[in-house]
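Reopening this ticket.

The earlier resolution said the output was attached, but the attachment link was broken on my side. Pasting everything inline this time so it's all in one place.
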Amino acid sequence: MAIASFQDYWTRQGEWVEEPNRRRGGESGVQRLYDEDSLLYVKRQVGHIYRSPLHPFGRPTVLRERDALAGVASLNVRVPTLRFCEAQRDQQSGWQALLVTESLAGFEEYEQWIAEGGREHTGEWVHERFLQDLAQNLARMHRGRWQHGCLYIKHVFIRVQAEGPELKVEAALLDFEKCRRVFSAQRAAAHDLRQLRRHSSFSDADWAKLLYFYEAAFGSVVKGLE
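Inline output:
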């Protein structure tokens, strides 16, 4: 039987893929679990909160991430499927919170794919198609005024798989803990693209291609990136 309750997820333990670290007044880490035939990632938090004008006394960060995942997924942005999310108050430790997502089957970190020779093995047209798909996903997210907030290249994934006689190339995004809606699409775009530029190994030529595809999908030039 598939796991369904907070207590079931909370009591099960798996392999740590992100060891618990202290921040935001609490602890947060990620474990890998198997549920029947599914590989899941469980973000497990204790006292890990953020504050905002709407939540001046603090709110578990997984609830913001849950809202962001649902919001960007509704815009056809490729992200992990949300399986479960809940937060409870414990008398001793305060907030306990869980966010459970399904693995991105067949995807791997873009930088790992590059290091393993994926670009050389598949050809430049595959890499160009990846840049286009990444740009289109980002543009859809930003047109909806969602700002990722932590758009590092380590949060960008790629999948290349056979589909009949052709190769299908897809990009996906992870880690929406800092994602939030902002006042304008331009603001979301400028913030995230500047951040990705700083925290990626894209060459000038690759960045120019990504920006070309992005602005075609976004529908206008992003101010400050010309």
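Reporter confirms the inline version is readable. Helices lie at 6-11, 61-73, 110-115, 118-122, 124-143, 185-198, 204-218. The mean pLDDT is 91.
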